[in-house]
Description:
By secondary structure, the protein is an all-alpha fold. The protein is built from 10 helices and no strands. The protein folds into 2 domains: 1-126, no CATH class; 134-299, no CATH class. Zinc ion (ZN) binds next to loops.
Amino acid sequence: MYGMMVLMDEIFVYAVLIVLGLMFGSFAGASVWRLRARQLVADKADGETIDKKEYKKLLPLTKASVRTDRSQCLHCGHVLAWYDLLPLASWVGLGGKCRYCRTKIGWFEPLMEVGVAGFFVLSYLLWPTDLLTMTAIFQFILWLISGVLLAILFAYDLKWFLLPDVIVFPLVGIGGLVAISKVITAQHPVETLFSIAGSVVILSGMYYVLHKISKGQWIGFGDVKLGLALGLLLSDWQLAFIALFAANLIGCLIVIPGMAMHKLTRTSRVPFGPFLIIGTVVAAIWGPMLINLYFTLSF
Ligand SMILES: [Zn+2]
């Protein structure tokens, strides 16, 4: 009987995480377009050359308030009903097309929704610490919120090679909260502080040096700021090291075959943010297990 109840509780938690993940994924997808629209308006005001077609298409988003956001089809301008805006369900039900003009909506929205839902479920399934104290639950919730912001940054950097400050700065704030909560609850606060400092230096300091040496050619300053946020989120120098290693490994696995197949050249721009983000997620979820494995194998 007791086991049955625990099972029901777990199923309930997963159902909630999936629904919340789909909703926040939908929010993340909409935010990407809204941020892009704002960026284009700002670029135009600065006198930079912008894609006129894209500008015209996304302009309505700059006027929409948060409440009415994404309430019209970007192609035909038809106002969308609530049943057109259900995460994933509407997209599947409509075969990925607008109900009114039948224009393809594309894969971006459902991918963001499934991606964030998957992130929520995987994080809960594999989270390395027991969620038994308020602090542990607090840190886990901060991690889920970070995941939503990271999804926005991931997509934005992949599409337009930029990491918007309006997302990176709140992420630095959340990272700061994680760091503070770790120091407060640490058995050895000074050691924890050093570990956090190391984490920041590994994920941000190195990029800062590369950014300075190359005068922004290899690494943009956006990556440096993202590194700061990720270093604080992990708040552990060993995890930061794993994140950096994983990011570079994934980067090489994509860049080298890309160059071999002539899809990428030496001058191609490769956004580094997505690699760092994946590396950090890998480190946060599997890092403690990898560290344990390393010490078990080496002693
Ligand atoms: Zn339409």
